[in-house]
Every structure is written in C-alpha cells, then in structure tokens.
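anyone seen this seq b4? input:
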Amino acid sequence: MTQVRVELEIRGRVQGVCYRYFTEQAAQAHGVTGWVKNRVNGNVTAVIEGEELAVKAVINECRKGPQNAHVDKITVATHPHKGEFDSFTILR
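predicted toks r here
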C-alpha cells in the first residue's frame, strides 16, 4: 500500500453549506487522516494523508460536496507522506 499526502484547495460555494463536516465524514469513512478548514478568501483547504486509493476516494467525494455546495475547482498538490496525524479534524 502506497501512503500519500495531498493538499486540496477547493473553490466554489463551499462555505456555509456544511462542506467541512461533509469532508470530515468522507475522510473518516475512508480511514484517512488530516484536517480541513475554511479560508478567508471563501475557499476550503484540506490536507489528507493515507492509503492512495482511500485518498483518491475522498478527493472524488470532495468534487461532489454536500447537497447545497457547488464545487467549481479543486487544486490538488501532492507532497511526501509524513504520517503526522492521528485522525481527521475540522480546524477553526
């Protein structure tokens, strides 16, 4: 199993629509770790670590988002896996 780390920048109507909670639930369902938070510019940023297929599954979920979200674009940056997280959390 290949372990990966990605950083996502999610653009669109992704604040005020439970997007962070949705991402946390997807991450927990797929067994990945990291965090998600709102940005002051209206975007959402997430760092996700875990098994490559699980991380890809979470990215696909993020492309859909919750019911009232509208995702315009997700930028994915790949970084070396660090294994620094024990769980997936919402940062405030």
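Strands lie at 3-13, 33-38, 44-51, 70-79, 88-90. The CA atoms of residues 11 and 73 lie 5 Å apart. kinda curious what u guys think
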